[in-house]
Amino acid sequence: MLPLVTMKTLLRAKCFWRLAIPGSVRELHKDYRIVPPQNFSNYESMKQEFKLETPEYFNFAKDILDQWTNMEKAGKRPSNPAFWWINGNGEEVRWSFEELGSLSRKFANILTEACALKRGDRVIVILPRIPEWWLANVACLRTGTVLIPGTTQLTQRDILYRLQSSKAKCIITDEVLAPAVDAVASKCENLHSKLIVSQKPKDGWGNLKEMMKQASDNHTCVKTKHDEMMAIYFTSGTSGTPKMTGHTHSSFGLGLSVNGRFWLDLTPSDVIWNTSDTGWAKSAWSSVFSPWIQGACVFVHYLPRFEPTSIFQTLSEFPITVFCSAPTAYRMLIQNDMTSYKFKSLKHCVSAGEPINPEVTEQWRNRTGLDIYEGYGQTETVLICGNFKGMKIKSGSMGKPSPAFDVKILDINGNVLPPGEEGDIGIQVLPNRPLGLFAYYIDNPTKTASTLRGNFYITGDRGYMDEDGYFWFVARSDDIILSSGYRIGPFEVESALIEHPAVAEAAVVSSPDPIRGEVVKAFIVLSHDYKSHDQEQLKKEIQEHVKKITAPYKYPRKKTFPWFGPLLETTSLLDLRPHLHNGGVIFPLFQDPSRLTVEAKTEGRTFWEQLLTGKPSGVFKLGDCNCSREVEGFVLKRDK
Questions:
Q1: How many beta carbons lie within 10 A of that of residue 467, not counting itself?
Q2: In the chain, which residues fall in CATH 3.30.300.30?
Q3: Looking at domain 4-401, does it have CATH number 1.10.760.10?
Q4: Predicted TM-score (pTM) of this structure
């Protein structure tokens, strides 16, 4: 059974008209019937009328995709593809829902027969934005195997950790990462099958392209309960290694209808382009479930790197109606000349992953005539809050709660705070757990339990609600770094840093950046033998080291070798991490740092900036009650 919020809209739509996209090179939308955009026009009525039923059994491939195939055959869906892929070499792939179904059933037979996978077995898929990634998603759905996506920027160490912790029995990747898999495969006792997407054969690997040529498309989709595990996403945490976030067939397969219908505002006639990497939950949001729930076309331009000119050309040449990208992308785009490009089909732009600056949305609106509708969510959830069509946009806000969730601002005791007061952003989960929330952290019941406070799931973000019911993001309540839409845990970067012989200690924090929102900043204490080395050269060497050890997007873009004097005789640099943000207080050895004051003129720089750059001047009071400590011009005393 298809979700009521999608299929009733389609079946009740009796009014059709023809639409042509003038001047488009690809006249995909020329001369066909489309379903009118009846998603909603009023936020309050949307919240009141929203209802999503959860059947006992649900499988997205069978209950959504195959139903769109039936509607396609019956002429009840526009003739645009279900999937449309291009790359920079002029290659192009277009699949209808029927073709997607046939190819995914072939892939499913490979998983169950050649790879001997059974329902519930786990499959790691590390592929770039190529068609096989989408087939892998649907094939796992059909077989009941659990998909574990990974970004192509993973290193050998990252892959080993994911294989061992997930106990995956199969891995699917390309020829770029296959050597890294081979290097660690002997350490992964559960791994017994490897599939490679390549034009060339490779020893020890099944060649997916060749196997697809021989596979049968006769496959019966497994019957899955709605609460069975469907996918696992690795997400960074403040300390320790990445957590495994488990989603069920209904939490994303049905829950993301909220994103598709209300935030993305999709209909079967739409073509959506989401630029997110395949390793992140954002791809599930806007490149798989949300569009296909609504019967829309998923458009993919395989760009090895983000190039503003290519983005502009694609939006101009192809009939893309909905564009979804990270705030960093919009920041980069508005820095380029757009005057020679016309986005004739584009009607809706959205962004998520980190807060977007009001000045960016204003510049985008001035150049395109379109607003950017910001959304807020997590790997653990579907859309939590959003700016929706039909409601006033408050630039800089996260918008209002999605119809799926009851969102509140809470104090430390779980009490709901009034408008204007800052607190923790929470989602009510008791007495009735809402659809669209993850099941639990795999093999980590303690962490799962820690997310609950009374009747609420605590997101880990802080914010406030204004008098009009709009939510505003303030900060993470932990040390997670959000850079260009990536979640980066400081522990992962610190672990990579200290493997370099020059690094005695390291602490990693976020630092503001006008393009990426935040970047990784590393505070490093050098080993004795390296203190006389050229520091600029050493910084570059350490950067390259981190890129090799962990995913390249995690490397520190800012580095400093601060002078901490005798401070580290009594505490470790890691203990200072909470106080290092933006040159903050760096003296946690005092039990009550709120009572510490700074006195003296600092020649235009703060005390903290001077101390961290190793160039102090002036006299400052800081210290404990029994002693004063003079450190290169600083007198540190307790403020009585």
A1: 8
A2: 479-561
A3: no
A4: 0.76
